[in-house]
Amino acid sequence: MNTIYFDNNATTPVALEVLDEMLPHLKKLYGNPSSMHTFGGQLHKKVEEARGKVAQLIGAEPEEIIFTSCGTESDNTAIMSAVESLPNKKHIITTRVEHPAVLNFCKHLTRKGFRVTFLPVNNLGQLNIDELLKVIDKDIALVSIMYSNNETGVIFPIADIAEILKERRILFHTDAVQAVGKIPIDTKELPVDMLSLSGHKLHAPKGVGALYVRKGTRFYPFIIGGHQERGRRAGTENVASIIGLGKACELAGKNLTEEITYLKGLRDKLETALLKSCPDVRVNGDINNRLPNTTNLSFEYVEGEAVLLRINEYGICASSGSACTSGSLEPSHVLRAMGVPFTAIHGSIRFSLSRYNTEAEIDRVIEIMPEIIKELRMLSPFGRDRLDQSIKCPYRLDLP
Ligand code: PLP
Q1: 150 Cα–ligand 1 center, Å
Q2: What is the position in ligand 1's atom list of the atom closest to the CA of 149?
Q3: All domains of the chain, ordered by start, with CATH?
Q4: Which of 67, 194, 309, 321 gives 20 to 30 Å between its CA and that of 43?
Q5: Which of 223, 220, 189, 219 is nearest to 209 (CA)?
């Protein structure tokens, strides 16, 4: 059975072109880029080439890119750097819907005497900039707001926020792990101070990421040791993966516009068909402002985990916002922050696509989902009632 992979916000397959560039550096070219000899030294050049490619994808200068081990490290580093640089400032602003890489690090800082404001979102997952303006004070070390949400794909108004914070000389970090490589980002136009990205979300391997730090931003390293990354991130470079990340960024930049159109077409086809064929389904998040590859759907009267297990029998991979399957015991904090009803959170499924998905794969999901949903609803007393359409569901998304 072939795998039909619709879980690309969790991780993506490594592109073959990326693997091809990496392999020699896992086999024969194993030197240390810091070595004096030619064998190691040639890898220094390769690492710098990769840095240039990552920089180019986001409109940065190569010196503004620091390689890290993952998106989580980039996020932790940005926050820690801010609080170390501004030791007298004790207020951090973030949102309720961040990835745990930001959310839990901020919670950790509350135990160290920091005050953290977690901004709310509305029922479409949008952020109201007035909420940010209300809490700005003189004590802010950092504002950290994600570029786009991993669960719903909703994109925040990062450019507007960045302008507001720049005017007030407040440090601003954005977690762009889900956005880089999926939508255009140009740090020349976008006055953020720091920006995180992660290799495995854009067809590079796991275990490599980067942090963009705008020239002139005061920076403190999170991992301290040797002189790698110009003293900004110690540890012998993960050369093969860094080269892979460079190649992945080059590929993403080359076909970004075409890919956006392609993914949006597939995603919209899937979404429209499921909304039509399954009763009592809603889309979670702002459908007019989200990543082109993501749809988050709530199927009332079913457990997301049960749906995942059933579609898994057909080789289809997706993820759910309900407990356990998402690796935590809590239902999605993102959907809860949006005020999505509990039953809808438990029946939520995220499909996240990549350039390697095909229309035939979409058609397969469209073919099997309605039967699976119907079958699972027959197992629940509420679902059975709904099947005879006698009760009006308050969350029903009526199609035009
Ligand atoms: N930030 C966001 C928005 C993410 O979606 C993820 C991973 O899912 C991360 C950070 C963490 O990235 P990594 O898995 O590379 O540590």
Answers
A1: 8
A2: 3
A3: 4-9+256-385 (3.90.1150.10), 16-252 (3.40.640.10)
A4: 194
A5: 223
